[in-house]
Structure formats: structure tokens, C-alpha cells
Amino acid sequence: MKKVVLIKGDGIGKEISDSVIKIFEACQVPIEWDIKEAGLECYEKYGTPLPEETLNAIRQHKVALKGPTTTPIGTGHKSVNVTIRKSLELFANVRPSKTLPGINTRFGNIDIVVIRENIEDTYGAIENMQTPDVAQTLRIITKQGSFMIHSFAFEYTKKNNRKKLTCVHKANIQKMSDGLFLQTFREVAQKYPEIQADDIIVDNLCMQLVTHPEKFDVLVLPNIFGDIVSDLCAGLVGGLGLAPSGNIGKNLAVFEAVHGSAPDIAGKNLANPTAFILSSIMMLKHIGMKNYAQKIEQALFNTLKAGIFTKDLGGNYSTTEFTDHIIKELNKLQTYIEIVNKEHESKVEFFDPPKPTPSSIWKIVGLDLFVEWNEVDKLPELPEKEGKLELKMISNRGTRIYPPPVPEILMVNWYRCRYLANEELELKEIVEFLKNVTEKGIKWMHVEVLRKQDNKEMFSKAQGE
């Protein structure tokens, strides 16, 4: 008997969880549920949306099935989903989108797997107000995090007999962050010559997904793009009500439906449990109970083929009626004999990421000083030269405005001012620079130290954006 953590969550979470419990009982799946709390109701009860007890149970049992949890918009507690992923280092989010029997969609031949980096990017929620009018979010992409997700993606593609892996990025604009993500993909690809590896810019991908989705097999993306594209792919096969997912780490995994908690229909017996059932099927395959997974999947497919749909899919069946029909189909199927906890043949291997690259070979060549300046009819009054540092460029909202000419754009009270030196700097010289500009009354709120590795480029003239 395998113990699995079950988090029912909020809203419709209890109803769709009960659906899976009934189906597993009918199929005699050898699983014992360890039911734990998380979500909005938990927050209201205990002051935390994710008790440590719940995280410890997942660490102990290694696998969990999680229902939807409510995340307040713009205020309130942090996302339970993001907290679980980051706390347990569940770095890979796997989102299959496959045409289901009986579901009429614009395209009928879709079989795409989205593999999304799950930890980094803007989901670090590293944000601050730089001025009263300007908010900043830092987008973090690392060599190690990129290596882990790309290695996982290639292994997944190989173990599941997929043929093609496509890296999705915006490296034409985000040359450093997405550039690093793409560069690491190409490095890892060299270890898998049998897999067709290519890349595509994210906006081009979105256009092609809604015109020729059959061209794509497995996609690997940074966190924010993966979030958006995976929902797009779900829409191609019928919507989030049919979209399962798994959050995978080295030793732990949490499976969940990706739709929300739908509080407007909670308790009305209207919820569609399909996505949660598909997520539980993914979980069974992950822990080696493949035959049970196949049996439940076939019963679900037979139910859909028969036109048994909940209201969101155009039918009139309640949550419990839909569940009962699946159980009827289960009883018609051959009984499977399963070796519990047998290692699943498509289990993905994990590789250790590269060690951090020492920065001793990098040289400090300048800084970006972020300045608040409220006189929009003229540029900030900054020293053109301060010590070894010389002002080379000023931008506003990402557009270069200095050296002249100044473009006719909307200015806000936030300026990035780039200073470069003609020789190597020490950190103490940066500190001295900041002291001097502060004494001159310059209202700065943020500084980025600029480093270069290539000596040939180290002291080249700044080219702005």
C-alpha cells in the first residue's frame, strides 16, 4: 500500500477530490491517502495557507495530489502552488495537452507536452517600487536552473519515445536571460543527437500553435512563457477543465489540475473533475502503477466517447453523475494485476547541474545608476565624469534618451544612467562614486555593477540599448 498526500484545497477542490477518491476505490488502487490542508480556508483558520505539516508529509511520502487553491489577486497571502514548488524544489512542470475522445475542438490531432521551468524567472517575485510611479520586477535565469530543466526535458523526450524537443525563448530581445536559457539548451542538446532539437521565438510559437499545432511535440520554456503557452495549449484541446499537470523534482512530485478553485460553483455539484482525474493518472504512472492508470484512463475516455459531459463541456451531468459513469465503465474493463511501486519504464533520470562559475575572471567596468528625477521637461542633472567613471548613456522606460537627440516619448520619473570606465574598477571606487553623487543631491534608488569577461570588449564604447 502506497501512501500519497491528498490536498483537497478550496472551492471545487473538495468535490473533485472526492471524485478521484471514489474512482480509486472502485479500481482498487493500492493507495492510502494522507489528507492535509492548504489554501484560503487553511489561511483563515491557521494564519498560513501552507502549514509546515503539509510540506513535511510530502517530503515523507514523496508524492502528492493537490486540488485547486485560491490565490488573492494583488493582496493577501502568497500562492500555495508557487510556495510548494519552491519549497520542495519541484523545478519541472509537465503539462500534456492531447486531443481527448468525444471532445470537439478546432484541431483533432494535438499531442503536445509543455515542460516549464518551475522555480526561476519572474516567479521569484523579487519586486520593489523604485519611485512612486515605477515598479520593478527582476527576472532571474540561471545556468544551473536552465541545465536542470533542459536535462529533464531531453530525458523526458527520450524516455517517452518522443521525437522532437523545441526550446521556446525571446533571446532576440532578452539577449542575456533568454540567451543563457537558449545557450544552455544547445549545450545539453549535444548529448542527445538522436533527438531533433530546435528553437523558436515565443511569439512565433503562439502564432503557429493556433494555425499548425501538429508541428510541435515537446516544448521547453522559461517559467513565465511556460505558464502562458501551457494554458494556450490547454485551450486547443478543450480548456483548463481538461488540463492535467505534474510538478517534478529530484525526489518529490506534486500533481494537480491547473484550473482555479471556481468558488462561484463550489458546493453545487457542477465541477468537472476531468483535469484532476487526468492528473491522478499522471501520478499513478509516476509511482509505477501504470496498469491502474491505463484502466482509469480508458474508463474516462469511454465516458467521454459516450457523450457524458459536465455543464462546462456542454452536457447536463453533475460531478457525481459523471464520476458514477466512469465507475460503471471501470467495472466493464478487465481487471489488471499490478506490481505496486514497480519502477516505471519511462522514469526520467536526473543530472547534477554544473558548479557555479567563479567570477574572479570578470572585471568591474562600470555601473547603471537608477535615478528618480521629477522634472520631465529636462534630463537629470548628473556629472558627466566622476573619478574614473564617465556618463555614456541615459534611458527612460527602456528607451535611450542620451546622448542627444532626445526622442519624443513619454517620460516618467525613473532614469537608468550608465557610467563606464576606461580601466578596471574596484568595488571601493563604486562606493566612493555613490558617496559623491549622494552629496551632490542626486536621488538614486538602485545600482547595478557592470562586469565584463572578454577583455577585448571590456572597455568598448557603450552602445546603449
Span between termini: 59 Å
Unreliable residue runs: 339-345, 455-465
Count up the helices.
Answer: 13
The CATH topology of the largest domain is: Isopropylmalate Dehydrogenase
CATH class category of the largest domain: Alpha Beta
User: How many domains is the backbone divided into?
Assistant: 3
**Could you tell me the number of beta strands?**
18
Integer-rounded radius of gyration: 26 Å
Give the helix proportion (percent range): 25-40%
Class inferred from helices and paired strands: alpha/beta
Q: Which CATH architecture of the largest domain?
A: 3-Layer(aba) Sandwich
Mean pLDDT across every amino acid position: 90
Strand order of the largest sheet: 2-1-3-12-11-4-5-10-8-9
- Percentage beta strand: 15-25%
The CATH homologous superfamily of the largest domain is termed: Isopropylmalate Dehydrogenase
Shape: elongated
